[in-house]
Amino acid sequence: MARPRGEVRLALKLAAAEEPGTARDLAARAQVGFAAARFTIRNMVASGELAPVRRLEVPWRCAPIRVYAVAQPRTEAPPADCGEALQRVISAAWR
Questions:
Q1: 4-62: pLDDT as tens digits
Q2: DSSP letter at 21?
Q3: Could you tell me where the beta strands, DSSP code E, fall in 10-79?
Q4: CATH number of the domain at 7-70, please?
Q5: End-to-end alpha-carbon separation of the chain, Å?
Q6: Quick check: 64 pLDDT over 70?
Q7: Rounded CA gap, 51 and 54, in Å?
Q8: How far is Cα 20 from Cα 6, in angstroms, rounded to an integer?
Q9: What is the DSSP letter of 53?
Q10: Are 12 and 32 in contact (CB under 8 A)?
């Protein structure tokens, strides 16, 4: 059984649902520390909860800053020949 999601993750997700923002914006809106937010946002992007939606050019930094938003869930339909592939695997296993 998996552990429940932490408070920082939940607060960041609610902040991103309000409006997309940079890691610093989301941390301020969620009222969590920047270091915890940066670490958690990296994990949320890896798990598919947040997605970078664009890059923001700022004058005080050489590289653009990522803007994050809540990721849209993927809806993938199973392949049309899924039943046939399953039948082949089962029949090969019984031989």
A1: 778 999 999 999 999 999 999 999 999 999 999 999 999 999 999 999 999 999 898 89
A2: B
A3: 50-56, 65-70
A4: 1.10.10.10
A5: 36
A6: yes
A7: 9
A8: 20
A9: E
A10: yes
Tell me which residue of 18, 8, 12, 20 sits closest to 66, measured CA to CA: 20
Q: Are 16 and 40 in contact (CB under 8 A)?
A: no
What is the identity of the amino acid at 63?
A
**Which residue type, as a one-letter code, is found at position 80?**
A
Mapped onto helix, strand or coil, the DSSP state of residue 90 is helix
Mean local confidence (pLDDT), 78-84: 65
What's the residue count for the chain?
Answer: 95
Task: Please give the Cα distance from 57 to 48 (Å, whole number).
Answer: 24
Residue 48 has φ and ψ, to the nearest 5°, of: 90, 10
Q: Are 50 and 42 in contact (CB under 8 A)?
A: no
